[in-house]
Amino acid sequence: MTDIIIDIIDLKKIYKVKNVEYVALRGVNLKVKKGEFLVIAGPSGSGKTTLLDLMGLLDSPTSGKIIIDGHDVTYFDEDERATFRRKYIGFVFQSYNLITYLTVLENVELALAAAGVPVWKRREKAEEILSLIPGMLELKNKRPNELSGGQQQRVAIARALANDPKILLADEPTANLDSKTGEAIVELMKKLNDEKEVTIVMATHDPDMMKYADRIVYIRDGSIEKEVIQNE
């Protein structure tokens, strides 16, 4: 049984904009271990988000391979990708992406509905997930516009955990937060990584958020420059 949960092999992504080619990834090779907290670091435009989108099956590569938990998912069609995402992957974005007219509880319940959890079980499961995150259960009847940025991001993390994912992908999750709140969010993710053994891949350019990682992979101009192993 391999301990590699994500295996990226010679991954390339080329976008075409008005007949002009833009190379976003240039043959990236990367292995992520089960239970690892990996940071992908680099400046804007380096390819961090593209790599995360491909890992999360939100986009397809131009060439190369993506193997997740032993499944070659490289050229899944849209239905296959959606089914696989629901089973394996949770997402946290910098913009929270909460539905503003729903309560905190309803936002989490919606993710459970998408995962096929029956109606009678959704509320109980949503409350159970919110109780994992300090201070969230008592805010369950609030709407996103009544919450601070940090609280909204915590709801987004709760929603991402709704389908008990093996992998949590976080794209600049602290970018819209002050440093203290950002640190609290990454500490929460590290706690989930330690206690629930969720594999976390986080893209960031903030050095203060990198100290929680087991390993940092630095990417620039679509290529991996170096990696640093820490917290061993």
From TrEMBL:
Q: Which SUPFAM superfamilies match?
A: P-loop containing nucleoside triphosphate hydrolases
Which InterPro entries does the protein's record reference? AAA+_ATPase (IPR003593), ABC_transporter-like_ATP-bd (IPR003439), ABC_transporter-like_CS (IPR017871), ABC_transpr_LolD-like (IPR015854), MacB-like_ATP-bd (IPR017911), P-loop_NTPase (IPR027417)
Annotated source species: Sulfolobus tengchongensis
Entries under CDD domains matching the protein: ABC_MJ0796_LolCDE_FtsE (cd03255)
Q: Name one GO cellular component term.
A: plasma membrane
Q: Does the keyword Cytoplasm apply?
A: no
Report the Pfam families cross-referenced here: ABC_tran
Query: Matching SMART domains, A to Z?
Result: AAA (SM00382)
Keyword Zinc-finger belongs to the record? no
Domain called ABC transporter: residue spans: 9-231
Tell me the keywords, alphabetical order.
ATP-binding, Nucleotide-binding, Transport
GO MF, any single term: ATP hydrolysis activity
- Its recorded name reads ABC transporter ATP-binding protein
